[in-house]
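Hey,

The postdoc asked me to send both predictions to you directly instead of through the lab channel. I've kept everything plain text so nothing gets mangled by the mail client. Protein one:
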Amino acid sequence: MKSNLAIVKTAIAIAISLSSYAYGSGNYSHNTTQTTTIAPTPISESQQTLAKVFPKYTTVFGIKVRGTEKVPDEKLLHAAKIMAEYLDNNDDGLIDNQQVVGTLLANKATLAMIADDSELQPVRNKVGNRKKLPNLQDLKASETHPNGAARGVFDGALEEVLHLITRLGYSKVYPEALGERHGSLIADAMDKARGGRFDTIPDSYPENAWFTYEDESCDYSCMITEYTYFALTSMLGGQQFPGRLEKIQNEWKLNTRDKVRSGDPDVYDILTNPVYLLPSVLPDGQYNSATFEIKTGADEPSTTAHDSATKAEQPLVVLLVAMITVFGKVML
């Protein structure tokens, strides 16, 4: 009996070791989709409304990127690729932070694209504003500029897609560090960057402040969203092309990685902490691990979950179960 038990323990150890290798190595299997089939969930009334107002859509790791009829297909696909790059920053086909994507899915996070300002109010009249539908993040096709930095134009997809991911993903998974509320590490860093804690936009900021956001419709949590975006994209090189600083310096002054490192070491340490698995490379709209297809019409029920084993890992899980079963019979 003892020898049989030893055999079982050895078998389990080998199987777990193999399984751990698959889970821990981003190089084990490339171009695999991290999904597993689950029971379909009903389509809610709000989702049906979104499907009518934003009939075009594609899916990034289960997250919807939607657009009105007037949104050019190439702009919607570009936004999807930017999202994929943020979530799979090394473009190996594997989600970098499963918890973040799982939380985005649980919150039904959706990127909602309109063509331009002319569609903004008509769309809001149909679906409501962000307070009514907090799971939405809007993006205008008119502000979406693939490879815009080469032309001296900022690509708005880099901002709005990141807003969705940090607001409904990272801030929920890491509330003590990245939570969009008073007392989190990122909030304390922001208060220092603004020269004090301001729950609303002040009449004027202290002279030594380097984050001086001006949109009076933005509440405290929204300010953290903006602060995270400015700091992270500056660290990744997205705010340093010629002419960009002149356009943003009324709100943000540290537009390069070196400036953030020396001028705001608190936020630099937070956003480079490997525990959070934040992006370390700026997306460029070139994502090679998946091809996105635009669909139209009624939405599809969710039938996949993105927090499970990859296709490459599943055989190892099966192997583990089989080995335990076989050697369990040996013990009997």
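Protein two:
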Amino acid sequence: MYSRLFFKGIVASLLLVVSSFRPAVHDFHTSLTQMQYNAKERMFEISVRVFTDDLERALSQESGHKIQLNASDTPNPLIEKYIRKHFALSTSPNAHKPYTYVGQEPEVDAYWLYLELPYTEPFKEATLRQDVLMEMFDDQVNLVNLQYGSQKKTVVFRKNQAVQGVRL
């Protein structure tokens, strides 16, 4: 009898410990995008950080079946298709600048998505669309930090402001 109680106590303690390792569900919906111009390579190096559970939910909705991301750093075609649909930079109406999806890197509760966007002309102004996860969450906020030479600018994107002009 004591051994059964002891065993139940051990199992309950282990379940408590294991459940504490699961990342907590977050109460806010945000992404962070870093766009840094590499003058030597003449391109913007772009990284987008999104919460894993939000990204999985969006990819599941897009694909029509449950998606669970693994820790692979091989470029994921589902993620690439998704980011191309929700992130773009244009220098003239309806002329999106092409970019390369380099891949993704998992963290504990988030993913970094990496893009490279060739940009040979001087940056003066552009139109930027950053509506990642806005189809999922009405309170989604996407921050974009843009650095071009010594100039820096932060732009905040919300559901009603998913496309904005950027001027340096």
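Summary for protein two, as requested: The first helix runs from residue 2 to 20.

Thanks,
C.
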